Amino acid sequence: MIALDAIDVRILNALQKNGRLTNVELAEQVSLSASPCLRRVRLLEEAGIITGYRAQLDPACLGLGMSVFVDLRLSHHNDAASDEFEAAILRLNNVINCYLVSGSADYRLEVLVKDLQGYEVLLRQLQCLPHVKDIQSNFVIRSVKAQAPMPIAAS
Amino acid sequence: MIALDAIDVRILNALQKNGRLTNVELAEQVSLSASPCLRRVRLLEEAGIITGYRAQLDPACLGLGMSVFVDLRLSHHNDAASDEFEAAILRLNNVINCYLVSGSADYRLEVLVKDLQGYEVLLRQLQCLPHVKDIQSNFVIRSVKAQAPMPIAAS
DNA sequence: TAAATATTGGACTATAATGCTAATTATTAA
DNA sequence: TTAATAATTAGCATTATAGTCCAATATTTA
HTH asnC-type domain: which residues (chains A, B) (predicted)? Predict the structure, then answer.
């Protein structure tokens, strides 16, 4: 874990808000001239602190207005079963996130679909996945806070 | 919902993968010359399909190696209680996502903390929030698939 | 088919990225 | 505290990119 000074923190916060800031704009915001600013950004990228830049899309505009959390249990908990299941999950494009979690479920998925019909299709796909024993769904009614910037502390 | 042709879909997919592609690079990838490519990107931004660009950071590098889903129930379900609770959630920087969900919980939060100690601190803050009755936590053991690109269909 | 509309490609200007060097700042050791 | 060293920064020059304008092409519609 690389030490971040106050300027690095400002850079990271600015790029979390707007990943397409030009280096000149970024340098202004963090009170630095362009070249050292660029040097710091490159170092943050090389250090793996900045892992990439993504355009954020509005799922509703893309016909993906329904978001669902799907909790899933497997019938077998050996490595082979997990690997097979996870490989299948990676192929399902409507599954945006998938975590192995503690608690009553094994996996928690976050899924984007158009509507209940789309959800039904996906549910059937999930039920057919290898080693799936149990599925429970929670629908997102409203998003209160989404993809908030990470809290960064200088170190 | 604006109609997207095949070129728009390619643009959106390319920018989901890399939001800092130069317009020239993007134009090459979608087999278009620079100026119409730029025009399309601007239209996608103005239409609200592209909502922004963000740098992706590695939480582990920032001392936020622990991710937890927190399910939360309120004691009262009137508007005032919800509003007060949601306002408080917006102020908690370790809460990255917060959704109103169906099912046994009212709200589902996604939380980033350094470790169990950090989690304990946050848990106490959540318990002190107005109208909170019940809290249940699920720890993320491993991320199988994270922030996968949205599946986009031409229309 | 022909007219109208939308989209594209290319030239040009303004702006930004990037590498280099000198100067400044911070750090270490005496 | 001062001097020496190392790290970081600012400014400048060069190259690349963004963004605008207009003519040409493709598409749509009657």
Answer: 4-65
Give B108 CA → C5 C1' in Å. 50
Chain-chain contact of B16 with A86 (C-beta, under 8 angstroms)? no
Domains of chain A: 6-46 (1.10.10.10), 59-139 (3.30.70.920)
pTM for the predicted model, two decimal places: 0.92
- A3 forms beta bridges with none
Q: Kindly tell me if the per-residue pLDDT of B25 is higher than 80.
A: yes
Q: Do B12 and A58 make contact, defined as CB atoms within 8 angstroms?
A: no
Q: Give the Cα separation of A42 and A27 in Å (integer).
A: 13
Minimal Cα distance from B44: which residue of A? A57
Scanning every strand, the nucleotide with its C1' closest to B33's CA turns out to be C9
- List, in sequence order, the alpha helices (H) in A18-114: 23-29, 34-46, 79-91
C-alpha closest to that of A121 among A80, A92, A79: A92
B63/A51 Cβ within 8 A: no
- Summarised one tens digit per residue, pLDDT across range A84-136 is 999 999 999 999 999 999 999 899 999 999 999 999 999 999 999 989 999 99
Question: What would the mean pLDDT of B18-37 be, rounded to a whole number?
Answer: 94
pLDDT at res. A1: 62
Assess whether A33 (CB) lies less than 7 A from strand D.
yes
User: What residues of chain B lie within 8 A of the CB of A67, using their CB?
Assistant: 99
Q: What is the pLDDT of residue B154?
A: 81
Q: Which nucleotide is nearest to B24 (CA to C1')?
A: D17
> Do the beta carbons of residue A66 and residue B4 sit within 8 Å?
no
